[in-house]
What does this fold into?
Amino acid sequence: MSGRFELESEYSPAGDQPAAIEQLSRGIARGERHQVLLGVTGSGKTFTVANVIATANRPVLVLSHNKTLAAQLYSEFKHFFPRNAVEYFVSYFDFYQPEAYIPRTDTFIEKDSSVNDEIERLRLSTMNSLLSRRDVIVVASVSCIYGIGSREDYESMVIPLRVGQSVGRDPLLARLVDLQYTRNDYALERGRFRVRGDVVELHPAYTEDAVRIEFFGDEIERFTRFDPLTGESLESLDALNVFPSKQFATPQEKIGRAILSIREELGDRIAWFEKQGKLLEAQRIKMRTEFDLEQLQELGFCSGIENYSRHISARPTGSRPGVLLDFFPADYLLVVDESHATLPQIGGMHAGDLARKKVLVEHGFRLPSALDNRPLNFEEFRSLVGQALYVSATPGALELGWAGPANVAEQIVRPTGLVDPAIVLKPLGGQIDDLIEEVRRTVEKKQRVLVTTLTKRTAEEL
It folds into this structure.
């Protein structure tokens, strides 16, 4: 699917919005890499960005610095673009305690987390939309610079199906298991499938509805999308793409190669610890890694599999992990909301993660390759950005310097026509007398006065 963005709104641009939309749209068409939308609070910056997106008509990543603001933007863009794919990609943990080690007290903190199933569904839906259509807006937090596995591996595991296709029921079931779907003939929940004779019912991990696949011999006879709760049929389909049920999806042959590579690194690491006289660390890394390898061998998955991502994707040492940005085409548009706060946050993620994992590696809790399961550093992030629009009421010197004065669009006049009042700075001396005089003049005009102070005591004395 390659539809156009269709913006729906009962309002038209007003105030400084039309000029800002025109300037930013022309900049994108010219190929300007960096532009800034400097707009006062309440000037309708989100509506301006929506109009720019509709004009540019290319996949968009909207980056926000916290989940709450991302959810608000997601809701607004869903309202503006009801016929297009608006997706939400934030951390799927309701609670997350990363594994850590405190050498001073010899305390190891085990990884603990609680996954939000609905947000996991939305994350998978994001990846699937980016692989299947161009009219996509993804609203994301800094989670988008963390590793999610290889796009090539994920894409290679997709099962394309169509009505009339010759594919046996049992081979299809085996493929579904490879995609980490679980068979359960009683409860059809997200990420599961059930089998009833020649009928396979599948609840994809990335949708709220389920799909019924009916066979006639070894030929697919019909696809029906239905409500898994009521069983009500919603529509018939001619074709169906089944995507993996987990973001760290890997072909089994790659798992086999990765196990050999991990064993090789484990042997080197044990030898290094023993040479240094660190026998406890050598025993610790051997036990922990062997346990993970047994799970990978039997299940194709293990707790903390992301720490072996470099081996699984066969990346060189020190290389960056696969991230959500890899799922976007080269011509995507990046919108950084509240850029004065978001850009510094992106720059700080890598150093904090590295400091924690270095301690784990030094004391035998993780192999050195775990250091390559990390967020992007700032330069890696910049290398994956083509054209960017930075949105803020107070943009930082960094983005203003990249854009230059010619590529800063200002929104000072709100759609209502109101502007912020002028601010006058006065010296500290004689401020009380000056304030009283200003109040007197204002009261004579039968107008109101609001005085704010720094402390409660000052307010009482005034």
Residues 252-275 form the longest helix (24 residues). The chain has 14 helices and 19 strands. The longest strand covers residues 219-226. The radius of gyration is 28 Å.
